[in-house]
Amino acid sequence: MLAALRIADRIGASVLNVHPGIHGYFPERFWPRMKAAELAVFQELSAFGEPRGIRVVAENLIRTNVHFEDTWTLDGVVRLHDDWQAGLKGLCLDTGHAHQAGLDVAAAVRRLGPRLKHLHLHDNHGGPIDEHLPIGDGTIAWDGVFGALEDVGFDGLAVFEFGPPERQREAADRLRARFGA
After folding, report:
1. Measured between alpha carbons, how far is 55 from 113 in angstroms, rounded to an integer?
2. Average pLDDT of the chain?
3. Residue 8 near residue 54, CB atoms below 8 Å
4. Mean pLDDT over residues 155-167, rounded?
5. Which residues share a beta bridge with 121?
6. Which pTM does this prediction carry?
7. Can you give the pLDDT at residue 80?
8. Exposure on the CB side of residue 167, measured as CA atoms within 13 A
9. Is the peptide bond before 32 cis (omega within 30 degrees of 0)?
């Protein structure tokens, strides 16, 4: 991840997204130590990125039996963020991951509130597979999500996680129509 930060610095990136969490298949006696190590990693990454103007963000994950539940219910990423000592930090809400995990995406935006600094925008049908569909091609209630983003005053960066490029242009046009330039 430090190598990724060095590359981010070279290309002038302002955000490095990191998947948090530890694997639930490790014996339970190791979990507290692993969570402490996870926090230390995020703090180390922030210490490197912050003086370079690179915000480190932790992303919510899909619902799976590999990672701890707290990475998809948002409890773990909120706790990680709140314990993490850094000035330039935040959380990334992956809309498809949240929907796949059975969360109300608009409620997730509100829960993360001012911690929310980055978005991964894509759609799915809320099933076991994160399909990475264009916005509007799945079952996420986008009007509610956009309203929640306005309510929390989101001013971070967002990226589309779907293709092809013409569908991304359509989505960008819809977002411009809703939010302005």
Report:
1. 17
2. 92
3. yes
4. 93
5. 160
6. 0.93
7. 94
8. 14
9. no
